[in-house]
Specification:
The chain is an alpha/beta fold. It has a single domain (about 5-300), classed as Divalent-metal-dependent TIM barrel enzymes (TIM Barrel, Alpha-Beta Barrel). The chain has ten helices and ten strands. β3 (about 70-75), α3 (about 85-105) and β4 form a beta-alpha-beta unit. The longest helix has 22 residues, at about 120-140.
Length: about 300
């Protein structure tokens, strides 16, 4: 398996639109394979909402080529469950993200399912089959696989993709489309308390991507491996036994965890000049990313499955 990580690792240091610079920084840390974070593409100030979105994507492609890194996976923005103008706008942005993936040679785009507060499991399955089917013509046009993702009740109790069998039910409703797959998020699975090995085996060839991070105490903190309670032996044995062909993609914030994500309290009594420790300087982040890569290499080397 080859190791990848996300341009979102530098979300606290760069404007999220600056994925080209994030790519350069990741390459400096030793990463050769990149997961492009487009999660905030639906924001009106995003590059993907502008007429220059192709130029933006080309700049990212060029940065990767110059840094000796390739793009292997991406995280898309969220859809919308309620019909209307906003839902239609987000569908069009997601289609644009599929075309960006095609421009960069990315074959897998992770897109969260849509959900409604208080919604039933049946409503969730029916609405998501409809939602993902709307993306399939563009997936077929670009050759990019759309991957849904599991979560946990702590995050969204009405998001009913918790185990491998849940994905299989949704896939059946999608007619087992060859360009529809699952991204197994091991941190979300750990929060939910499922049997990781069993679920990975249930996914079978529907497993197209993974998100690797750690959690503890039921909180989805996206920590680096070995900072929480994930059983990585179960995860890696599952990936090997199921014949997983994708990338070992980190979605771990390493050191430091972003202040907004960690809900870190702020000191506001004396003004901004006295808030000096909300996060660490970039040099610490760079050192931490290098350690994150070393840890991932150790994990895969231990099982004899590391590929560069």
């Amino acid at each position: 398996m080859k190791i990848a990580t996300s341009t979102g690792d530098f979300r606290e240091y760069l404007d999220w639109n600056d994925a080209a610079e994030a790519t350069r920084l990741l390459a400096q840390c030793g990463f050769k394979h990149i997961d492009l974070n487009m999660y905030h593409s639906f924001a009106e100030d995003s590059a993907l909402c502008s007429d220059d979105w192709r130029k933006w994507a080309e700049g990212i492609r060029r940065a990767g080529a110059e840094a000796g890194a390739d793009f292997v996976q991406a995280h898309g923005s969220d859809g919308c469950i309620d019909p209307g103008k906003e839902r239609n706008r987000r569908i069009e942005i997601l289609k644009r993200e599929l075309r960006v993936c095609n421009m960069l040679g990315i074959r897998r785009l992770v897109i969260h399912g849509v959900w409604r507060r208080g919604g039933s499991r049946e409503e969730f399955m029916a609405e998501n089959a409809r939602f993902y089917r709307e993306l399939m013509p563009t997936a077929e046009e670009t050759g990019v696989c759309v991957c849904t993702e599991n979560t946990c009740r702590q995050n969204l109790p009405e998001y009913y993709l918790f185990e491998g069998s849940d994905f299989n039910e949704l896939s059946e409703r999608m007619g087992r489309h060859p360009l529809f797959g699952c991204c197994w998020d091991v941190g979300h699975a750990n929060c939910h308390g499922v049997d990781q090995y069993k679920c990975i085996m249930e996914l079978g060839d529907g497993l197209k991507a993974v998100h690797i991070h750690d959690t503890n105490f039921g909180a989805d903190a996206h920590m680096a491996p070995f900072q929480g309670s994930v059983c990585y032996d179960a995860v890696i044995n599952g990936l090997l036994d199921v014949g997983f062909k994708g990338y070992f993609t980190l979605e771990s914030y390493s050191l430091p965890i972003a202040p907004k994500f960690a809900k870190r309290k702020r000191f506001t009594q004396k003004g901004p000049d006295f808030e000096r420790l909300t996060t660490l300087p970039l040099e610490f982040k760079m050192r931490s990313e290098k350690l994150l890569l070393d840890v991932a290499r150790y994990m895969l080397t231990t099982y004899g499955c590391l590929e560069e």
